[in-house]
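ok trying this again, last paste got cut off
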Amino acid sequence: MPRGIAGDPTTQINSQLSAAWQERKVQPAERCDDRTFVRRVYLDLAGRIPTREESRTFLADPRDDRRQTLVERLLGSEDHAQHFADLFDVILMGRADEGTYQRRARHGWRAFLETAFRENRPWDEVARQILIARPSDKEHDGAVWFLYEREDNYQAIAEAVAPAFFGIRIECAQCHDHMMADEIEQAHYWGLVAFFNRGKNEDTPNGPRVAESAVGGFSEFANLEGSSTPNFLTFLDAGTVAEERPAKEVKRSDEDRLYVSAEVPGDPREPIFSRRQKFVTQVLDGHPLLARAMVNRVWAILMARGIVHPHDEIDSMHPPSHPDLLDWLSDDFAASGFDVRRLVRSIVLSDAYQLSARRPTQATPPDSFAWYLERPLTAEQLARSIQLVLRGSFQNDASVVEDLRQQILEVLPDTVEVPIGDALFFSNHANLDAFIRASDGDDQLIAGVLACETADERAERLIETAFGRSPTESETSAITAYLDQRSERPEEAVAQIVWSLITSAEFRFNH
């Protein structure tokens, strides 16, 4: 049994949301049907739609616990590890050009993330490895890349660390205390910078490393009024780490006695007083926002918005919609040993996750979680799903993956909207057209549709493969009519129908 505080997390979610619905006089949506659930949970846990065979297997399962059984299988799948690595690559590092993605893979960052989710490593352990950036073995080399890719830009590092691991934005505190969230001070911004400002990228025989100096990094920051303050080692809700601070006129020499040899031969020596180490042991470890931020982020991944929204602004300006629930889940997550899989399982098996996507009334607020909130697929979800529809399998390095992740940048958007650029991409992008037309193998969708004997069978094959359901009468009529009109070029006609399906809102959204 996984560890945790007393009580089952799913039961707790159901109980607290149900009580909130009653208090707010909200009538939740109905429970979604099995066809909806299987598509939804494959997208959320495996990062792709199910195949026709996978959907049919699930729908034919007579067991009462078939949803729980499917969730457990998906959580242990390789697709799950790949999907969550996709998500957290963007969450932690941001979108990038293809050369940067290749460097991340070449230097182990991608493998580090995949292993973390494949082995369900404790989130606090993953965070420590990333922020200390001193891998003890080859398997953890990629953890260095979070700091290394930011190329000794200490402010960029601080502005990435705060939302990634604490769920807060500190950019507004660079020049003054946060004007709206009083708890976030300018000292926290520059204190976080100071924890990392002795680091320096270094290429070693073991690969990229972030060395750390034992001296320097002392400065003062000024506010808008012109007052100056030393950049003490401090952060929100963590106090100040004591460090001997030389007088301004004293320049401390960088002596060998201030260092110890690295545990791994060939790695940079380590300072006896390591600011990064102090940050991990005296700020990160036990920090209340570490669990809270991850719980809120995973909730946002699965429920389309966080209990605190936006998901990375957990501050006094953005109160949680269900504060007791966020408190309980955060405590449970920490007590479970930061078990990410347990947290995911608890949410997707909750009543709220399994609601219909039909909004009960226009007055029902989204932060009630009284219906399943639709959201667009990420670039990677869409790319895998398109490949499955057209070719029956997928590759993570296919050309369509590269095209889509350069176009669809968001992973956890604060608002659901389709930018004009995305609409144009789906309406006339040459590469997408070429990918569809190249999917003409004998065992692929276009050939399979053309091999069907009747118009009804062709419509059934197309709609079931793309949407996981049977076609409506109007869809069957429209497909039949179009194929009749283009009977002289049937392959092209089917390709155009497939284009219309995979670029439709029904396909591009999880619902």
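PB: full thing came through this time. The longest strand covers residues 199-204.
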